[in-house]
Amino acid sequence: MSKDLMRAIQYSKYGGGAAALKHVEVPIPTPKKDEVLIKVEAAGINPIDWKIQKGIARPFLPRKFPFIPGTDVAGEIIKVGPGVKNFKVGDKVVAVLGNGGGLAEFAVAKEGSTVARPSEVSAVEAAALPIAGLAAHQSLTKAAGVKLDGSGQQVNILITAASGGVGQYAVQLAKLGNTHVTATCGARNIDLVKSLGADEVLDYKTPDGAALKSPSGLKYDVVIHCTTGIPWSTFEPNLSSNGKVVDTTPGVSTLMSVAVKKLTCSKKQLIPVFTDPKKENLEYLVKLVQEEKLKPVIDSKHPLSKAEDAWAKSIDGHATGKIIVEP
Length: 327
Ligand SMILES: NC(=O)c1ccc[n+]([C@@H]2O[C@H](COP(=O)([O-])OP(=O)(O)OC[C@H]3O[C@@H](n4cnc5c(N)ncnc54)[C@H](OP(=O)(O)O)[C@@H]3O)[C@@H](O)[C@H]2O)c1
Description:
Layout: E1 5-10, E2 22-27, E3 35-45, H1 47-54, E4 72-80, E5 92-96, E6 106-110, E7 114-116, H2 123-127, H3 130-143, E8 155-159, H4 165-176, E9 179-185, H5 190-195, E10 200-203, H6 207-210, E11 220-225, H7 232-235, E12 239-247, H8 252-263, E13 269-272, H9 279-290, E14 298-303, H10 307-316, E15 322-326
Parallel strand pairs: 8-9, 8-11, 9-10, 11-12, 12-13, 14-15
Antiparallel strand pairs: 1-2, 3-4, 3-6, 3-15, 4-5, 5-7
Helix pairs in contact: 3-4
The protein binds NADP nicotinamide-adenine-dinucleotide phosphate (NAP).
Residues 46-48, 131-132, 135, 160-161, 163-167, 184-186, 189, 204, 226-228, 248-249, 273-275, 314, 317-320 line the site of NADP nicotinamide-adenine-dinucleotide phosphate (NAP).
Pfam family, one: ADH_zinc_N_2
GO molecular function, one term: oxidoreductase activity
Domain Enoyl reductase (ER): 16-325
């Protein structure tokens, strides 16, 4: 391969899933003024990556075809744009890519979306953090008002799909706050979710699990909802009088329910979350991993040459933790 080319994964139209991913050789991108060029050591897959392929962000993303997907990357900086102030060649980093590009040997990231990665945090752990970790962090702090330093009032939290990419972080972060955590997951992940700190765990395929009933009879002040397909009527009887459901996967029905609750002045609230990838929050998560207060759970690692397996696994919806691709 020419030294100016890199291996990457691309798709050229909406739809098609893993079968539509192509292995290509394309020019290594050049960082603009405020960008860094990263030699990718690990990339994390998120459901948003294949939802973009399905057309969820049309017409904004992809901005054009062919498109290299991938939002979360960790690696080493090998070139910096002329306006970059805080990074230099050789720095180990983790970044959130606003316009894809992660499933490749090299990727450009905005300096403002790039965070230093200390030596204690591996590339795989770092690549597992951004979108899922930031979604969990924002849901708990900004949307639900939980103070992760434990200085707030004790609250009872339910976390759905606690074995998934977002849920595993939500459980661990919630336990840093002053919270009692009930979590749902499949039977095979109950021990794992307990080991992340959950106080009680429900198998979502049992009648009580499907009804979200706390084994100890608690009502939830906050629900961090990390999957789809659970209607408001299932949450409602389990909420305390001012309970909030924070929905990380808001669809049309969520937005309609939010409007109805506003109109009827309901005390029980439904709050949609759209992750705002704030640099300081990613720095906070990296620091927690460095201090061993947060441990990313890794479902599986796949070489770039088999990226379609990682893509198909994410679409399948049964990952335990994060799916990683390594160039
Ligand atoms: N709003 C935002 O900005 C934002 C950011 C990140 C993610 N998200 C969204 O959040 C959702 C979760 O993302 P993710 O990365 O955590 O997904 P994920 O890793 O693919 O979730 C898979 C896990 O969910 C479990 N699960 C599925 N249905 C469940 C149910 N009804 N009850 C309990 N567990 C269930 C599965 O367990 P089994 O294998 O046992 O079935 C599996 O372990 C996605 O829809 C994603 O698009 C939104």
